[in-house]
Design a protein that fits this description.
Layout (H helix, E strand, L loop, with lengths): L1 H8 L13 E5 L2 E7 L5 H11 L8 H8 L5 E8 L2 E10 L3 E9 L8 H15 L4 E7 L3 H9 L3 E10 L4 E9 L13
Parallel strand pairs: 5-6
Antiparallel strand pairs: 1-2, 2-3, 3-4, 4-5, 6-8, 7-8
Keywords: Acyltransferase, Cytoplasm, Transferase
Pfam family, one: Acetyltransf_1
InterPro entries: AcTrfase_RimI/Ard1 (IPR006464), Acyl_CoA_acyltransferase (IPR016181), GNAT_dom (IPR000182), YpeA/RimI_acetyltransf (IPR050680)
């Protein structure tokens, strides 16, 4: 009996659902697999970062491994075409805020709406989990990414000076306030 009362008093009011079912996505005739990231994906994540960030890896192997262990409040997704990693996204969830920690799309797969699609997935997950807003940081000189985020409804919040320590580049903190109405799931014509 005591066990039942203990469970009742210690239930989380805002339980976060980090479950994810892998699925297939077809983009320009290419079959892409979208699945939850795990430690086996880390070497591919590091290679993709080098491709996207001009040979640099903003996140280390340790950073990815640490984040992938946070399964109770984080979701990291990878997108593969055959055995090639073409994109990934990560976010941390709480009732107050969902924070996009990282997103990258291979240069060979950019401008095909994959990043937009992944962002919408995370925004919908944030709504499903009752977050009040979605936030992220973006380099002040990354106008393409800023345009993507603004197209999704994000607005600039404030500047974080020297946020990217490797290049001493400033970041714009952007926010999307949620109305808790789920975005209509769109079928993209790729």
């Amino acid at each position: 009996m005591l066990k039942k009362f203990n469970q009742f008093f210690h239930q989380s009011v805002n339980q976060i659902d980090m479950s994810f079912t892998p699925f297939i996505l077809v983009v320009n005739g290419k079959i892409l697999q979208v699945m939850q990231a795990n430690d086996d994906n880390i070497p591919d994540l590091l290679v993709l970062e080098q491709q996207v960030y001009s040979g640099r890896t903003p996140w280390s192997q340790f950073s990815f491994a640490t984040e992938l262990r946070k399964r109770n409040n984080s979701l990291y997704l990878v997108v593969y075409h055959a055995s090639n990693l073409v994109a990934f996204i990560g976010a941390r969830f709480s009732p107050e805020e969902t924070h996009i920690t990282n997103i990258a799309v291979s240069p060979l797969y950019q401008h095909q709406h994959i990043g937009h699609y992944l962002m919408e997935m995370m925004i919908n997950s944030a709504r499903d989990n009752g977050s009040d807003c979605v936030t992220l940081e973006v380099r002040t000189d990354n106008e393409i990414a800023q345009r993507l985020y603004r197209s999704l409804g994000f607005t600039g919040n404030f500047i974080r000076k020297n946020y990217y320590q490797d290049t001493h580049t400033d970041a714009i903190n952007m926010v999307l306030w949620l109305s808790h109405i789920k975005l209509e799931k769109k079928k993209f014509a790729f």
